[in-house]
Amino acid sequence: MLIQRFRGKIHQVKVTEAQLNYVGSITIDENLMDAAGFYEGERVQIVNNNNGERFETYTIIGERGSGIICLNGAAARKAQIGDVLIIIAYGWMTPEEAKKTKPKIVFPDANNQVPKKKKKKKKK
What percent of the chain has pLDDT over 90? Predict the structure, then answer.
């Protein structure tokens, strides 16, 4: 048996653009895609914290380091620039895989950038 389980999330990122006259999708900064373990063309669920909308679309890689979060096509009607989104990816896995899988969760900063990892201090 396979179950569908949460495997990656970009938590509270801001919409920077909306392009209604474009074939549907969401364009995401490549740094955010990498940090969350998302693939280009992958189906994702979008949750809009501002208006409660929930919808699905697929990912397009955006310019690395740009902070772009752009809803394209019909998805552009589901949010406004500045709205805060949660972007979630799920995966099919066996129950055994699900028990071992740790989701990748990204908490972007106010500019939609992946926070830099803090270096651990060496013990003396």
Answer: 90
Q: Does 79 map to a domain? A: yes
Tell me the pLDDT tens digit for each residue of 81-90. 999 999 999 9
Q: How many CB atoms neighbour CB 6 within 10 A?
A: 14
The four Cα atoms 96, 104, 33, 40 give a dihedral, to 10 degrees, of 10
Q: How many of the other CB atoms lie within 10 Å of CB of 66?
A: 18
Query: Among all residues, which ones are annotated catalytic?
Result: 25, 58
Q: What is the CATH number of the domain that holds 93?
A: 2.40.40.20
Q: What domain count does the chain have?
A: 1
Long-range contacts of 51-57 (CB under 8 A, 24+ apart): 51/78, 51/79, 51/83, 53/78, 53/79, 57/24, 57/25, 57/26
Indicate the pTM of the whole model.
Answer: 0.91
Tell me which residue range forms the domain holding 34. Answer: 3-106
